[in-house]
Amino acid sequence: VGASGHSSGIAQEHPDLSPAGTEERPPVRDSSNSTLPPVQKKAKTEVGSSKHSNRIARERPDSFPSGTEEHPPVHDPINDTPPPVQEKPKTEVNPYSVGCYGLNRRFMVGDTAEFVEMDMVSSFQVETFRWQITHVDESANQVQINDGKLNTDLMGNPLNTLSAHYDVPAQFYPSVLQIGKRWKALFNMSTDNKHGGSGVLIEKNFDMKVVGRERITVPAGEFDTFRIEGNGRGLKSDVTIELRFWVVPGINFTVQSEKIKRMSMFKVKYHRLFSLLSYHQQSAT
């Protein structure tokens, strides 16, 4: 049985039988007659699997399975550097228009205001008085107060009062309020003999300026105002005049005004303060 020739013959005739005590060998394939065994393919992983896609995205964020939408890289808040923030382009601002506010006075018939006048030299109250808008002529640039006893332009600059007349509106108020704004107010004024005036035409020259913002309290309430100051004199007079106005954009009436007359050596001849008691206007502030 152990003869090698006999064993070889058995193996050739019956290749699936092996002698006892010998190792089992795999069948011998005849390359000329046998058919190739089928190739076993590996199981395909589903492309649409969310876990598989997420794993690929984490390992290779720049590659994505075919047939899927491209997703942005996964951001790791611990290890990744945050992307730079893109700043919006800055809009250029005109430096000459910064802080500009229109005076925005819009007088309408029926608007009213009450004022109190104080003599600051004696600290006594002089009087209270009331203004009512009785006519507005925009084409003529005129506002009539108390049936024409006072007249102003549409910005509130005086044309005539009970005791004085102006050849042009005395421009104490500008159309635009801006801190540092300067201008000149030049006009001729004549006083009425009926109210203690001389009737002489006087040329006036004032240097005006918006000096700043100021929050003040008057009987009508607390207001955030622009403060206007003016310094002037008659061209043939030694009397200097100081003017101060506290105005609010959109409010038709001056919240507070002050007038000081000084003689030579800066002696105060006249000092009056006018404060707003109440007001009513139809246009929105």
Description:
There is one protein chain. The protein is mainly beta. It has two helices and 14 strands, in the order ααββββββββββββββ. The chain has helices spanning 4-13, 50-59, and strands spanning 101-102, 112-119, 124-137, 142-145, 150-152, 158-160, 164-166, 176-177, 182-191, 201-218, 221-234, 240-247, 256-262, 268-280. The strands form two sheets. Strands 6-5-4-3-2-14-13-12-11-10-9-7 form a twelve-stranded antiparallel beta sheet, with no helix packed on it. A two-stranded antiparallel sheet has the order 1-8. A hairpin with a 2-residue loop joins strand 10 (201-218) and strand 11. The longest helix has 10 residues, at 4-13. The protein is elongated, with a radius of gyration of 50 Å. The relative contact order is 0.11.
**Residue ranges: pLDDT <50 for 5 or more in a row?**
1-22, 44-49
Helix proportion: under 10%
Tell me the structural class.
Answer: mainly beta
- The H/E string reads HHEEEEEEEEEEEEEE
Summarize the model shown.
The protein has 285 residues and is mainly beta. Helices cover 7% and strands 38% of the residues. It has 2 helices and 14 strands; from the N terminus they run ααββββββββββββββ.
List keywords for this structure.
disordered N terminus, twelve-stranded antiparallel beta sheet, mainly beta, 285 residues
Record the SSE blueprint.
Elements: H1 4-13, H2 50-59, E1 101-102, E2 112-119, E3 124-137, E4 142-145, E5 150-152, E6 158-160, E7 164-166, E8 176-177, E9 182-191, E10 201-218, E11 221-234, E12 240-247, E13 256-262, E14 268-280
